[in-house]
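At this stage, I needed to go through a protein sequence along with its fold in token form, as given directly below:
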Amino acid sequence: MSELAAAAKNGDNDIMNHFGLFGIIKEVGVDDEGLLEFHKYFNHPLYLDPSNQFYKALGSRSILTVRTWNPLRWYRAFKSMNERIARKNLTGNYVGEGLIQGGVIIFDRSGTPRAVYQELTGQELPMDDIIAALTVLQAEVAAEEATTSSSNAEEADGADDETAPEEEVVAESS
């Protein structure tokens, strides 16, 4: 996911300036050394999800789910995955629960999930698709802010009108 931040830079328009990026982990106290190593690679906030709600939202899929019985495809998939791991200088271990696949969930400002990308073991995340989803959300927010600021400007223009009655400002608390 750190690649997302790098891939999302488009000249001076860094789309990631408009979004928060964080990771969800499912366990601590099992391989804290490995977690610290991961945090060096993924230098963003990490949150613990002990009830696995995010993983459930992503389908609680296991890497052991067989998608093919063709041994040649297995060989190619593992070879490709190992080449990618070597190319990126990633290290890992087999400590802790590592069988549940993750993914990416993109939320809007209100916390509503707007896009989901499920991890497929051994494959790169679809960075172009993720950036496209972020770009759409950014455009929606910009349009919403433009509408809000233009309606605020119209209200301010009306306040300068001598015929506009003065309004009493009342603050409410609940």
